[in-house]
Amino acid sequence: MVKVMWVSVLALVAAVLLVTVEKLPVAEGVTCSVTELSPCLAAFMSSSSPSASCCAKLREQKPCLCGYMRNPSLRQYVSSPNAKKVSNDCKVASPNC
Questions:
Q1: Which residues are bridge partners to 12 per DSSP?
Q2: What region holds the Bifunctional inhibitor/plant lipid transfer protein/seed storage helical domain (predicted)?
Q3: pLDDT tens, 70-81?
Q4: With helix as H, strand as E and coil as C, how does the chain read?
Q5: From CA 70, how far away is CA 6, in angstroms rounded?
Q6: Is residue 58 part of a domain?
Q7: Dihedral through CA 59, CA 17, CA 30, CA 71, nearest 10?
Q8: N or C: which end of the chain has fewer CB within 10 A?
Q9: Would you say residue 67 lies in a domain?
Q10: What is the largest CA-CA distance in the chain?
Q11: Is residue 72 in some structural domain?
């Protein structure tokens, strides 16, 4: 039952992220796309440690984080306690937006 619920939650989050994808060019030449953070999904949704690929993508997408935090559809995911833990574990400072 818990596993089915977990899979359902992950599927819902993935669907929300895909529907609300915003591609915005940033001064550093990064294209902001929340789907780039898909390697971090498991860590954002649980207390598991982020993978090396998650940390790399989080560093790459750092210029985009304020935009994600301003998006009402994404805010609850990228501002969650687990997302903050992932940022700390990856040594990526949370931006002041």
A1: none
A2: 32-97
A3: 999 998 888 889
A4: CHHHHHHHHHHHHHHHHHHCCCCEECCCCCEECHHHHHHHHHHHHCCCCCCHHHHHHHHHCHHHHHHHHHCHHHHHHHCCHHHHHHHHHCCCCCCCC
A5: 26
A6: yes
A7: -90
A8: N
A9: yes
A10: 46
A11: yes
Q: Which residues lie below 8 Å from residue 45, measured CB to CB, with a gap of 6+?
A: 9, 10, 13, 82
Domain residues for the domain of 47 are 35-92
What are 25's strand-pairing partners? 31
Residue position matching structure tokens 């559809």 = 73
Please report, as a single letter, which amino acid is at residue 6.
Answer: W
User: CATH number for the domain including 85?
Assistant: 1.10.110.10
pTM, entire model: 0.69
**55 inside domain:** yes
Question: Are the C-beta atoms of residues 66 and 97 closer than 8 Å to each other?
Answer: yes
How far is 19 from 77, CA to CA, in rounded Å? 14
Residue type present at position 52: A
